[in-house]
C-alpha cells in the first residue's frame, strides 16, 4: 500500500489589524524598560516599514515613559492618516510641552479651520522655526494686529528668507536694508530670494548684478527666476544668446560679495 504523501496544513489564526495593535498594546503594558527611548525607536522603525498601526502602541508607550518627541511623531502619524481631530489634540499636547514643531502643526490646523486666535497662540510658540514668522504675521493681520505683524517680520528677517523677502518689499523698508537681508540669505545658497533680490538690485541701479542673480537661480531650477530672466532678455532683445548664457557654471555668474548681491 502506497504511503500517504498528502500535505496537511492547519490554518493560522491571524488577528485583524485593530486586534493586533491591541495585542501589542497589552503586551507592552507588561513591559518596563530602563531605556524608554527604545519604544520610540521601534515605533519609528515600524513606520519606516509601513506598519503605522503597529507603531501606535509603541509611541503610546514612549509617551507614557516620558519621551518628548513621541507626542509629535504620533500626532504626525494620525495627521498623515487623515485623523485630523486626534492629530490636532496630539499637536496641541506637543505644543504645550514646548515642542516647536508640534506648535507649528497645531497652528496650521487651527488656521485652516479659521480659528486665527488659537493659530496665533501656537505660531507664537514656534517662532524658532524659520517658516513661522510670516505665517504668524499673516494671522495677526487678520485679527487686526498689523503693527505687531510688521515687527515680527522685521525682527526675523535675518533668520527667515520668507521674512527677508516680505520685509524688503515693504514700502517703509529702505532699499539698502532690504538688500542686506536678502544678500544674507543669498550668500548662504538660498536661491528663493532671487527674484526679490534682483528687483531691489534694479532699483539700486545694478542691472548687471540683477541679471546675474536671476541666472544663478534659473540654473538652480527656480521657475520664477527663469521666467523673469526670459522676460528681461525679451524686453532687451537678447533672446538669441539666451541658451548660450545658461550654459556656464553658477560660479561664473555669481556676483562677488561686496558687489551688492
Give a short synopsis of this structure.
With 261 residues, this protein is mainly alpha-helical. Helix content is 66%, strand content 0%.
Write structural notes for this entry.
This protein has 16 helices and no strands. It has helices at residues 17-29, 37-48, 52-64, 68-80, 84-96, 100-112, 116-124, 132-142, 146-155, 161-168, 175-186, 194-203, 207-219, 223-235, 242-246, 250-253.
β-strand percent reads under 5%
What sequence of helices (H) and strands (E) makes up the elements?
A: HHHHHHHHHHHHHHHH
Strand tally, please? 0
Q: Whole-Å distance between the termini? A: 94 Å
Computed over alpha carbons, the radius of gyration is 27 Å
Can you give the helix content as a percent range? 55-70%
Name the shape in a single word. elongated
Task: Note the total helix count.
Answer: 16
Q: Give the biggest beta sheet.
A: none
User: Low-confidence parts lasting 5 or more residues at pLDDT below 50?
Assistant: 4-15, 249-261
**Class per helix and strand makeup:** mainly alpha
What is the typical, i.e. mean, pLDDT?
Answer: 85
Summary tags:
disordered C terminus; 261 residues; mainly alpha
How do the helices and strands line up, and which of them pair or pack?
Layout: H1 17-29, H2 37-48, H3 52-64, H4 68-80, H5 84-96, H6 100-112, H7 116-124, H8 132-142, H9 146-155, H10 161-168, H11 175-186, H12 194-203, H13 207-219, H14 223-235, H15 242-246, H16 250-253
Amino acid at each position: 500500500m502506497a504511503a500517504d504523501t498528502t500535505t496537511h496544513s492547519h490554518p493560522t489564526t491571524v488577528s485583524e489589524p485593530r486586534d493586533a495593535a491591541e495585542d501589542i498594546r497589552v503586551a507592552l503594558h507588561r513591559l518596563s524598560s530602563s531605556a524608554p527611548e527604545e519604544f520610540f525607536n521601534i515605533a519609528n522603525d515600524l513606520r519606516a516599514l509601513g506598519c503605522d498601526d503597529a507603531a501606535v502602541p509603541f509611541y503610546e508607550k514612549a509617551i507614557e515613559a516620558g519621551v518628548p518627541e513621541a507626542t509629535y511623531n504620533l500626532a504626525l502619524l494620525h495627521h498623515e492618516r487623515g485623523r485630523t481631530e486626534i492629530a490636532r489634540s496630539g499637536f496641541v499636547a506637543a505644543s504645550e510641552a514646548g515642542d516647536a514643531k508640534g506648535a507649528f502643526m497645531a497652528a496650521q490646523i487651527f488656521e485652516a479651520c479659521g480659528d486665527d486666535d488659537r493659530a496665533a497662540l501656537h505660531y507664537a510658540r514656534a517662532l524658532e522655526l524659520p517658516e513661522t514668522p510670516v505665517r504668524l504675521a499673516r494671522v495677526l493681520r487678520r485679527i487686526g494686529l498689523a503693527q505687531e505683524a510688521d515687527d515680527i517680520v522685521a525682527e526675523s528677517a535675518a533668520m527667515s528668507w520668507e521674512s527677508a523677502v516680505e520685509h524688503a518689499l515693504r514700502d517703509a523698508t529702505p532699499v539698502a536694508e532690504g538688500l542686506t537681508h536678502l544678500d544674507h540669505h543669498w550668500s548662504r545658497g538660498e536661491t528663493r530670494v532671487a527674484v526679490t533680490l534682483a528687483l531691489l538690485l534694479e532699483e539700486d541701479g545694478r542691472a548687471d548684478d540683477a541679471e546675474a542673480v536671476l541666472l544663478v537661480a534659473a540654473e538652480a531650477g527656480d521657475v520664477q527666476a527663469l521666467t523673469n530672466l526670459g522676460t528681461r532678455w525679451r524686453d532687451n532683445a537678447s533672446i538669441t544668446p539666451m541658451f548660450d548664457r545658461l550654459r556656464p557654471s553658477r560660479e561664473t555668474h555669481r556676483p562677488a560679495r561686496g558687489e551688492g548681491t
